[in-house]
Amino acid sequence: MSIKVKLTILNFLEFAVWGAYLISMGLYLGSEGLGPNIGWFYSVQGFVSLCMPALMGIVADKWIQAQRLLGLCHALAGLFMLAVCYYGLSAAGNISFASLFTLYTLSIAFFMPTIALTNSVAYNALEKEGLDTVKAFPPIRVWGTVGFICSMWAVNLLGIKSTPYQFALSGVLSLLMAIYSLTMPSCPTNQSAEKKSLVEALGLRAFALFKNYRMAVFFIFSMLLGACLQITNGYATSYLEAWGKLPEYADSMMVKYSVIITSISQMSETLCILLIPFFLSRFGIKKVMLMSMFAWVLRYFFFAIGNPGSGFVFIILSMIVYGIAFDFFNISGSLFVDKETDLDIRNSAQGLFMMMTNGFGATIGMLSAQMVVNNHVFNMPEGGNALSGWQTCWYIFAAYALVVAILFAILFRYKHVRDK
Q1: What is the DSSP string of 253-311?
Q2: Which fold has domain 3-187+202-411?
Q3: What is the residue extent of each domain of the chain?
Q4: pLDDT given for residue 201 in this prediction
Q5: pTM for this model (two decimals)
Q6: What is the pLDDT of residues 120-173, one digit of tens each?
Q7: Are 127 and 66 in contact (CB under 8 A)?
């Protein structure tokens, strides 16, 4: 089996694990009366990303080969996710927020580092084969999105989008990933016997990248844009199904197949990932990041003006622009970090990028979004217009993304030399 095929399967499984619950979890929480707490479940992904990806990146740099550490993390994440399902089934109708949240957090704490570790394993394997990561990785990574979509469709079509069985599907896939990751090529660790400072021994040199103005601005705006990443994951399906409370839309396609409709976002990703090598080589990281930021503006704006009737086209357009919003930021950013950092701190730098985006950014973004949504939707007085509240929320999120884009255009200094 060629290394590209092996890495394709690796990425498929990695994101199938995530897709099993990430988009539909809000529906389950809402069905158990935990709607006002949706933000906590999504923000904890950011909270654990403040330390776990960077910590595991250091461990992979210094002590445990990345492919083995990837397997260990998935094994633990899968077992805890199965525990989430078991508790959800056994305590149905009387779910304790503290118990469910604790089990979920333990699973997420070990899953979040696997995204950066999967990238590191893939980059290492491609480089061993003498392949250009910028050209070879995106067509491989696209199969991760396919895996994500397959899990989403399975959850919707199996009728488990509002049940804890979605966590069981994720747990089983995670255990499969744990076994499969051990078949990947060995990744090097830096076990040099030469005397090093404490900072070097702990692998913290990646933080020295903040001394470089361009890298510091890049990481700061990665955090600011990371605030956008989980908002639609947490609230999109809840918003789409809220239209079902209106009799004329109760049986609409958008309400019945909310998770599948949302999966158009991931379908858009599959195309946009393949466009990344062309856009990066032609326009450079600054313009590609700006494209992502303005796509987030459109993502939220289209949600605000869409509906299951005459405005359905705007819902679809919102899903389509998600590919640019997500991939042109996440994948291009990861490749930029890979090219701009030294080999001996590369795993740590990827962990740092993950910490700034899915750590600080996602945590602050989701908790802020939760306050906005609770204020305009879940905590509205009896008889209030929840749909109007949802639309106000999307306008607020669009305005935030627009401000971030304008500031990035002014402050990030990068002169791109176009590839010949």
Answers
A1: HHHHTHHHHHTHHHHHHHHHHHHHHHHHHHHHHHHHHHHHHHHHHHHHHHHHH--SSTT
A2: Growth Hormone; Chain: A; (1.20.1250)
A3: 3-187+202-411
A4: 47
A5: 0.84
A6: 999 999 999 999 887 899 889 889 989 999 999 999 999 999 999 999 999 999
A7: no
